[in-house]
Amino acid sequence: MIRRNVPLTKPLAIIGSGRSGTLYTTLLLRRLGIDVGHEQPGRDGIVSGWIVPTVDPETSVVLHQVRNPLLVIPSTCRALESSWRRVREWVPLPERPLLLRALHVWVLWNEIAQRKARWTYRIEDITSALPRLCDEIGIKRVPMPPMPARMHASKVPPSVVTWEQLMCLDVAMTMRAQTMAASYGYPA
After folding, report:
1. What are 85-142's pLDDT values in tens digits?
2. How much is the CA Rg of the chain, to the nearest whole Å?
3. Measured between alpha carbons, how far is residue 116 from residues 67, 85, 88 in Å?
4. What residues contact residue 11 under an 8 Å CB cut-off, 6+ apart?
5. Spelled out in words, what is the top-level CATH class assigned to the domain 12-184?
6. Residue 168, number of CB atoms within 10 A of its CB
7. Phi-psi region for residue 75, left (φ > 0), alpha (ψ -120 to 50) or beta?
8. Residue 183, Cβ neighbours under 10 Å: how many?
9. What is the 3-state secondary structure (H, E, C) of 6-31?
10. What is the DSSP string of the chain?
11. Gap between the Cα atoms of 185 and 188, Å rounded
12. I need a surface site. Which of 14, 41, 52, 156 has the fewest CB within 10 A?
């Protein structure tokens, strides 16, 4: 781990929809010597999928992290009830089915995050995005530290949903998701 004794000039807030790899990014930043918390603030900031509307781009360096929606949406179905309540404070969500609710979260949360952030990057591209991430944070560029292949290897294996399955639930919201996914570089 790289040791840093000087805090960042502005707190860092990396946001996105829940289940977008925020735990992985938290570990990466900690290995770079940046004291961020996962879902709670550290000395240098926070990495969170659930605080999107509360982040202030005037007082924080706000970056937006995305992950393939066809992996995130089914994974979001496993979110805790407290997470669903937090999201409902800001955006309307359908009650059932859970997959439809998760689709709404992915679209609405990422729309908010994208408006607040100075840069959006894909977690799948974190190695090639690291130099710019360092620039955005305001630290010296460093090589990618050794990282685990998966953060949740011992938990439930990832499930995948198809665009066709989502279309059966809500055509309009799925089309919004596909447009966003394509703009982030994912197949739509």
Report:
1. 999 999 999 999 999 999 999 999 999 999 999 999 999 999 999 999 999 998 899 9
2. 16
3. 17, 21, 19
4. 41, 44, 45, 46, 59, 60, 61
5. alpha beta
6. 12
7. alpha
8. 12
9. CCCCCCEEEECCCCCCHHHHHHHHHH
10. -----S--SS-EEEE-STTSSHHHHHHHHHHTT--EEESS--SSEEEESS-GGG--TTTSEEEEEE--HHHHHHHHTT--HHHHHHHHTTS----S-HHHHHHHHHHHHHHHHHHH-SEEEEGGGHHHHHHHHHHHHTS---PPPP--S-S-TTSPPP----HHHHHHH-HHHHHHHHHHHHHHT---
11. 9
12. 156
What tokens does 32 get? 């770079």
Residue identified by tokens 């089914």 is 74
Model confidence pTM above 0.85 = yes
Taking the alpha carbons at both ends of the chain, their separation in whole angstroms is 38
Per-residue b/e over 15-39, b at no fewer than 16 CB within 10 Å?
Answer: bbbbbbbbebbbbbbbebebebebe
- pLDDT tens for 92-108 read 999 999 999 999 999 99
Cα–Cα distance, 156 to 33 (Å, whole number): 30
Query: What residue segments make up the domains of the chain, in order of their start?
Result: 12-184
